[in-house]
UniProtKB/TrEMBL annotation:
The entry's keywords: ATP-binding, Helicase, Hydrolase, Nucleotide-binding
Residue ranges annotated for the UvrD-like helicase ATP-binding domain, each copy included: 174-527
Name of the protein: HelD family protein
Keyword Hydrolase: yes
SUPFAM superfamilies tied to this protein: P-loop containing nucleoside triphosphate hydrolases
Species the sequence originates in: Streptomyces coeruleoprunus
């Protein structure tokens, strides 16, 4: 046993200073690189220079981001009793010895996983607390001391409650064991995470990407990674997390962005969108695309020089049948057909004693008669025009929907006033997904290496398919909460969703510990659960914050705006961000009331700053977002804003679960009965 350290904090600060100096030296080394001798040409030099610039950027020492946040001391018997500092990036000294280890490295894993039950050879785990950029505190767990009492980390609590300004931040310092398991699960498997509000699904998904990029950098650099979120404001909210972890190459998109083949200007009735989003539409489209193939009835005659070569109809038909039977895209088959025909011609030439070479084969494939035959047998299909016809031409739809869609369902998807052209059509979001499916039937959509799909519960089967084809040869992280499904087609079961995604073997994990919402607030919101998602467990909040919930009643509807504004004024008395959530229909009135009171406010997605902390959030955009304090205006209006009660209650559940530190509910109308 070594003697107790008289001033541990000073020693840790010294290590921080030394690590910073080492990082500076690493940066200076890169800056001093002279590439004149090693680059053969100008292009090489430009590429190398860019890489060097990126490396310099990656080695920046951000004053407000702690360089390390943890320390592991191994037992003397393992890792030679080594001590590792865990941080956001790897730092080494002049001799190449590590000063800080990347949180994603295998030796860092016990920082997240080791417990008294399974210490994983760790003797001491130390967590560091920072104020600004200064190391100001630490917390120790002696994992080999059975007598030491199990306590919840105060630093974790402080980290969660640290007031929010600006976009979402990373959680590397405090990833929990069950979260870490998902973060570090392998690249080849798809993981689906079911978790109630604030259980860290989004955080886990983003950290998993960072981990996978570390562990499989080259492969993913080649194939690409993508994070899919429900809307722009959500993507803006999360966009800083990966760059803060040093990952700058991950793309972000909504599902609508992925399928933007046409301009979306129209909307569908719920019943129509449900049918258009149903997986049976995929089969309707498949049939419709393949219906363009017309089996040949005439022989094909190819003239070359003085000779004529004849391919009989039955032989052409065989080629067509063979191409149709294979899992090959319509467009690829269309390209293969002329080559098949040319091959048949060449066989005949050989039989006639000619010795054609490869150039002849290509020439025959490009022969006008062959081209004309292919055009007649296998004409090009324009995906948007095909969908336009399906939705306009009742007979065409009926022919391909036979046995799949009922008459009523067919009626539901048909346009009452068919548009004249693809350009003039008022395409809906669901139509764009149909066009994406048709596009993929014609030409295979390239697959990425890994896709994170957040708020997945809201996708239709056809949307799952659209996402699935973008990771058909890669893997996915699917994140969602069945209780927060608010679309008419929201999924009721992950098994079904994963089937549509094309990943039926995905592992489904559940997160149950709630980090965002205080206990009192989650208990209040969970009263809705039995009425909208029976069977789903209530989130267990890790945080007790008495006094975090307040319900205020206005004397009458005329007083509601004033009460809501007053609640915002009170909330602004606290530090951090304030979200004022109101039913979409109430937003204009609430906005006017704020303006009249001289209170500036932001829209979701606009970054909160110390000077501007209040955001007015329509209930329909609240999903995935969070604020230190939330004022919820008129819950009954939030419920009434949806087409049915269950969706209304789910929307309310989302709105009630956005607060980190406090929720004030303001109402004039009676509260929904399920809440009281
Ligand atoms: N291990 C953790 N340490 C610190 N903070 C955490 C941890 N896990 C989650 N959080 C925080 O809890 C909050 C909620 O996390 P997140 O938004 O990822 O939850 P979610 O499950 O996606 O929620 P929702 O279902 O509402 O979208 C965030 O502020 C996140 O940073």
């Amino acid at each position: 046993m070594s003697a107790p350290d008289p001033d541990p904090l000073a020693r840790e600060r010294a290590h921080l200073a030394a690590s910073r100096a080492a990082l500076r030296a690493m940066r200076e080394d890169v800056q001093a690189l002279d590439i004149r001798d090693v680059t053969a040409n100008w292009v090489n030099a430009v590429v190398l220079e860019r890489q060097i610039e990126e490396r310099i950027k990656a080695l920046a020492d951000l004053a407000h981001t702690p360089l390390f946040f943890g320390r592991l001391d191994y037992r003397p018997t393992t890792q030679q009793g080594q001590r590792f500092y865990i941080g956001r990036r790897h730092v080494h000294d002049a001799a190449g010895d590590p000063m800080v280890i990347d949180w994603r490295a295998p030796v860092s894993q016990p920082f997240y996983q080791a417990s008294r039950k399974n210490p994983q050879d760790v003797r001491l785990r130390r967590r560091f607390g920072y104020t600004g950029g200064d190391l100001t505190a630490y917390e120790d767990e002696h994992l080999d001391d059975p007598a030491e009492a199990e306590t919840t980390s105060k630093l974790l609590q402080a980290e969660i409650e640290r007031p929010r300004v600006g976009p979402m931040r990373d959680i590397v310092a405090t990833i929990q064991p069950e979260q870490d398991e998902i973060v570090r699960s392998g690249l080849t498997g798809t993981v689906c995470v079911q978790g109630g509000p604030g259980t860290g699904k989004t955080a886990v998904g983003l950290h998993r990407v960072a981990y996978l990029l570390y562990a499989h950098r080259e492969r993913l650099a080649r194939t690409g990674t993508l994070v899919i979120g429900p809307n722009r404001s959500f993507l803006q909210y999360i966009e800083q997390v990966l760059p803060a972890l040093g990952e700058l190459e991950v793309k972000q998109a909504t599902v609508d962005d992925l399928v933007a083949h046409v301009e979306v200007r129209g909307t569908d009735e719920a019943a129509t969108a449900v049918v258009k989003g149903d997986a049976r539409m995929a089969e309707v489209l498949r049939r419709a695309v393949r219906s363009h193939v017309t089996p040949p009835t005439e022989p094909l005659v190819v003239v070359r020089g003085s000779r004529r070569w004849r391919i009989p109809a039955y032989e052409l038909e065989e080629m067509v049948r063979e191409l149709l039977d294979r899992d090959i895209r319509y467009g690829a088959a269309r390209e293969a057909l002329p080559q098949r025909i040319a091959h048949a011609v060449l066989v005949r030439m050989e039989q006639a004693g000619e010795a054609p070479d490869d150039r002849v084969q290509d020439a025959v494939a490009r022969n006008a008669a062959v081209k004309a035959a292919v055009k007649a047998i296998w004409p090009p299909v324009d995906p948007a025009k095909l969908v336009l016809r399906l939705l306009s031409d009742a007979a065409f739809l009926a022919a391909h929907a036979e046995g799949l869609l009922s008459e009523d369902e067919q009626k539901a998807v048909l346009w009452t006033k068919p548009p004249r052209s693809v350009k003039s059509a008022r395409w809906s979001a669901a139509d764009a997904v149909l066009i994406d499916e048709a596009t993929d039937l014609v030409a295979r959509t390239p697959s990425l290496g890994h896709v994170v799909l957040d708020e997945a519960q809201d996708l239709s089967p056809m949307q799952y398919r659209a996402v699935g084809r973008r990771c058909s040869t890669g893997s996915a992280t699917v994140l969602g909460d069945l209780a927060q499904g608010t679309t008419p087609w929201a999924t009721e079961s992950w098994a079904e969703a994963l089937r549509h995604l094309g990943k039926p073997d995905a592992l489904v994990e559940e997160l149950t510990a709630g980090f965002r919402v205080p206990r009192e607030v989650i208990a209040y919101a969970s009263r809705l659960l039995p009425h909208m998602s029976p069977g789903l467990a209530q989130v267990k909040s890790v945080r007790e914050s008495p006094g975090s919930l307040e319900v205020r009643r206005a004397a009458g509807p005329g007083d509601l705006d004033a009460h809501t504004v007053a609640a915002c004024v009170d909330a602004l008395g606290n530090e951090g961000s304030i979200g004022l959530i109101a039913a979409d229909a109430r937003v204009p009135a609430v906005a006017d009331a704020l303006t009249a009171a001289g209170m500036p406010y932001l829209s979701p997605g606009e970054e909160t700053t110390a000077a501007s902390r209040l955001t007015l959030v329509p209930a329909s955009l609240a999903k995935g977002l969070e604020y230190d304090y939330v004022v919820l205006d008129e819950p009954a209006a939030v419920v009434d804003g949806e087409p049915d009660e269950r969706t209304g209650l789910r929307r309310l559940y989302v709105a009630l679960t956005r607060a980190v530190s406090g929720l004030t509910v303001v109402h004039a109308a009676p509260l929904p009965a399920q809440l009281t």
